[in-house]
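@channel sequence for tomorrow's demo:
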Amino acid sequence: MSKIVTLTEAASIALHGMIIVAKAEKMANVIHIAELTGSSKHHVAKIFQRLVKDNFLESHRGPTGGFTLKKSPKDISLLEIYESIEGKIEVTTCPLDKHICPFDKCIMDNVTRKMTVDFRDHLKSHTLQDYL
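structure tokens (generated this afternoon):
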């Protein structure tokens, strides 16, 4: 069955993982996050390295180590997390990035542009705090 909208596994791990860290009473480690997200610990580690590099998280080494937020959950939008992993969301008129369309009217009627704007606005309007 076809899906029109999907999230990459990396974006899903980042978004869900950051909520796990925000909810944790103590540090959340890679193994715990991997178990809760149903992901490989290696993939989680790679994604969380990126989130540390982009100053969303602090990483603590050792057997009792893990991750903690560097900012308050209310100050971290889902859009910031998503774009840290996937890059800036680009809103375009044509889903195929064609500068010249062979038709007088877009056969998608610009629905993909609207979906992109709605998706971006949804992520922008929600913070980690909304899920605690």
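heads up for whoever presents: The chain has one domain: 9-131.
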